[in-house]
Amino acid sequence: MIDFSLSEEQKTLLEKARTFATNEIKPVAIEFDKEGTYPE
Predict the structure, then answer these.
(1) How many structural domains compose the chain?
(2) pLDDT for 7-21, tens place per residue?
(3) Are 39 and 32 in contact (CB under 8 A)?
(4) What are phi and psi of 38, to 5 degrees?
(5) Is residue 3 left, alpha or beta, with left meaning phi > 0 and alpha meaning psi from -120 to 50?
(6) What secondary structure letter does DSSP report for 28?
């Protein structure tokens, strides 16, 4: 049987990506969607 569980390194990367998205992207995403703009 194949083991599809994540390694500790992958779990750490996943958590960092989740934290970044929550702190940096989520707060401004709605405004960019309303304006139809994209940050450079």
Answers:
(1) 1
(2) 999 999 999 999 999
(3) yes
(4) -140, 130
(5) beta
(6) H
